[in-house]
Structures are given as C-alpha cells and as structure tokens.
Amino acid sequence: MCVQLHHCVGVKANRDGVLGRRDFLKGISASAIAGGLAGGLLHWTDLVTAQAADLRSRGMACILLWMQGGPSQFETFNPKSGTANGGDTKAISTAVPGIQIAEGYPELAKQAGDVAFIRTVNSREGAHPRAQLLMHTGYLPMATVKYPTLGSLVAHEIAGGAGQLPSFVRIGGLRNTGGSAGFLGTEFDPFDISNPAAPPTNTTVQTDLPRYKQRLNLLDQLEAAAGGGKMSPESAEHKKLYERAVKMITSPDMKAFDLSKESDQIRQGYGETNFGAGCLLARRLVESGVTFVEVVLDGWDTHQDNFGRTTKLAETVDKPFATLIADLKLRGMLDKTLVVWMGEFGRTPTINANAGRDHYPKAFNVALAGGGIHGGRVVGETDSSGVEIKDRPVAVNDLFQTFCKSLGMKAETENMSPIGRPIKVVDGGKPVHELFV
User: What domains lie within the chain, and their CATH numbers?
Assistant: First the structure.
C-alpha cells in the first residue's frame, strides 16, 4: 500500500491534506475499474484506523474538569471587581502581568502562565439538560440520533479500543447528564467511578484465572446456543461489555486506580477532597494509557447564596486544578495532555433577590491548559458590566474545533449514525487560533 494513498488512486485531498470518505470511495472505485488492486479493495475505514494508530503513537490524552450546574464567570475567571454586577468578589493578580482572576483561586493564579482563559464562550441554551449535552457533544439533542459525548469521541478517534484499561473514565459523574457513546456503541461508553479514593467495585476475580476463563467460555457457548448458533445484536453488545471488563480487571494496570501508591506529599498536594482525589486519579490514569478522563464537581447551580457557595467551591477546585497542571508539567505530560475546565453555561450578571445568579449562556468562561495550548493569555472580552461580548465571541463548535486541533483529531471525520447519516466530529466552527500562536 502506498504511503500517499491519494497519489496512488488519483484522489484529491482537501486543503488540509485529508481525504473525505466519499472522495476516497470514488477514487478507489475508479482505480479498481481501471486496473484493479491486487489483494482486493481497501475500505475507507482503513484510513481512519491508520489515523487513530498515529494519534495513539503520539500519546495524546484529555482531562475534562466538568463543573456541573454552570459556574459563575464573575466568581471564577472573569471578575468584575468594583461594579454592581461583580458583587463582593475581588480580583487578584496572577503570575502573568495584566491577567486577573477571582480571589478564590490563588494557587491557580500561580499557574496562569500555563493556562488560557476564554471569557466569551456563548450559546443559546439556558436549560441544564440541553446545555450539558451541547457542551459535551457539540450538538443539540435530537430524537433520532444519540450523539456521542466528548470523551467517547476522543476515545473512538484516538484510542480505538486499544489498551487494557477503559479508554474513557468518568469520575464522580453518576448524576451527570453529559451523555454516553451514543451511536459509537457501548465499547466507548464511560467507565463510571463514584468514589475516586476507593478501588472500582466488582473488579476482583473471585477464583483462579484459568477457571475464570473457562466460565467465560461457557457463557459464550450459552449465549450462542440461545441464538441458534448466532449471537443476537443484544448478546453481541453484552459480549463486548464482558470482554472489556475482563481485559480491565485482569490487567496489571489496575494498580493505576490505587491512590495509596502515591506519596502523602502528592496526595496532600491535590487536597483531601473527592475532587482532589479525582484529579490525582485522572493523572494516574492518563499516565497508564487512558485517553480521556472526566472529573465532575457538582453544585454550581447557584440560584441562592451565590457568593457563599462559590467561595466553598473555589476552595474545592483551586488547589487540585493548579496541582494537576503543575504535576503534569513536572512529569513531562502536559504537552500531550489537554486539560479543560468548563460547565454548561455561566451565571447572570445581575444578582437576584436570593443573593444568587441565574442561568446565562450569552457569555461564560472556559479554561484550557496543555495539549499545545499557549497559556498565559486571555481570549475575548466582555463589557464592564459582563452583559455583552465586546470582543472575540467563541461558539461551542469553535471550542470543539480547538479541542480537536489540540489533540490532533480531524474535526471533519465522519462517523455513520444508525439512520445512515454521516455525522462529523464537529459541525462547522474554527479553532481559536490565538491559543496556538
């Protein structure tokens, strides 16, 4: 097979050098008609597989710190100190001159040279379920298509089912409505962990390994017999889940879930909270070859007592977030690990009668670090009241394009949905180029 396949079969790549699925099929068919290809035709998925193998060889990974409920931009990374809308929240300087963030993040302020703050992300979705799905998938929910969540997309495009541990692990997100693998299949569903400080439940083999494998073979035979010698689609999916579980629990890499392997100094550095343990576990999992880890912190729906609640939330987030970035950098992992901090929307500039802030998707924060992102900068600006975007709006598909560029994924890659419609990883948008120059 030629390295430059489009040269062999007369197919033109697009301006990024990427072959479209339809163009590839047309080109390969024309070549076959003209002279045939020895050994049979190559399927277009061979190119996708080759791309996934290339990305795996680079060791790219992503950690999503998901702030469930919609974090206030004023009390995080776009404070409006001294204004009526800013309330009592003070701004503090960071390690980067000219960049200020809310006072609850002194440790993150020290790491600001590695962090980029986008202050003008926006959407039209102000309801939790729809906004959570949008910010996890890049698409609005539809009755006919179940779009894959970001972790499943990244695992599918980069991991491709490789490795003994799950390619996508979600920590503390059992109430999360960020979705599943959707039409990509159960193989790329998240492996959910409720307590990061304890080993995953039901992951110990209760007998010796040879006998355990005999039992699994018997199960396969029973399922095949029940289907008249052929497995039903349901049984096939069931078998995939079993195979995935067996591969994991019999792997020596399971030690990655054991935080007791870390020194007391490291564990204390991440903080003695479930979120801190989740961030430490995320680092350990990525270090062990897991492609995508999502760590969820609930409680950001601050309709009441916004200032008191966000103060406590900042205490929970600040130290683990800052330590995660510093730890990844110290281990030489930050360049190949994209860290994303975000929620489904922001909070209203005006303060309601309950000293809270309501839903506000018109302008909110996202913070990024690692994965080739240039830190120490701010993208976008809102007006002095925080009501309107003054400069550089960033749409959700722009954000997803940025994720893809950071991880080396092709945003225009199409996956086939059950209704026979090819769906791109990202539909439209452009990467936020300021983060890469």
Answer: 5-43 (no CATH), 58-199+273-435 (3.40.720.10)
